[in-house]
Design a protein that fits this description.
This protein is of the alpha/beta class. The chain has two domains: 39 residues, no CATH class; 103 residues, Glutaredoxin. It contains five helices and seven strands; from the N terminus they run ββαβαβαβαββα. The strands form two sheets. Strands 3-5-4-6-7 form a five-stranded mixed sheet. A two-stranded antiparallel ribbon has the order 1-2. The longest helix has 32 residues. The termini are far apart.
């Protein structure tokens, strides 16, 4: 059965039109979410001009802290503040000198969040070589890191 509808004195079949619209909406939905699903998460592992690594485990982070100031950055792919901070770190990380940024996936590392009392994404936590929390703050990018990191 063919259904017809009137549109400016012409008739078109609705079935092909509906299929075309469904396809268009599906493609539009995929394209609109692809930066969140694929592009944003790449910010975490994107090249940086400073010392930035992706979190693997606490022992590796402690080993980095034994070499110099180390900051855990709890970031979420869906968080615009986290993405802005990551972009800043990637572009201006050389200003951090010997500070290492360890990017932690906020959505996956729940035990680590409990250990350091992290309750929100876009949180920075400086640790020492034993893994003890030295200082914590939210946001600020490179300038925030430079103003909060304890040395010595």
């Amino acid at each position: 059965m063919i259904h017809m509808c009137a549109f400016r004195d012409t008739f078109v079949t609705t079935r092909p039109y509906i299929q075309i619209m469904k396809t268009f909406l599906l493609v539009a939905a995929v394209l609109s979410f692809s930066p969140l699903a694929f592009g944003q998460s790449m910010m975490r592992s994107a090249a940086s001009v400073g010392r930035k690594v992706v979190y693997t485990d606490l022992e590796a982070a402690k080993a980095l802290a034994a070499e110099g100031p180390t900051v855990l950055f709890f970031a979420a792919d869906w968080c615009p503040y986290c993405q802005a901070d990551l972009k800043d770190i990637n572009a201006n990380g050389s200003r951090l000198g010997d500070v290492t940024i360890v990017v932690v996936d906020y959505d996956k590392e729940r035990e680590l969040e409990k250990l350091y009392a992290v309750t929100a994404q876009d949180t920075f936590v400086q640790i020492d070589s034993r893994g003890a929390r030295l200082v914590a703050w939210n946001g600020g990018g490179v300038d925030g890191i430079l103003s909060h990191v304890k040395r010595g």
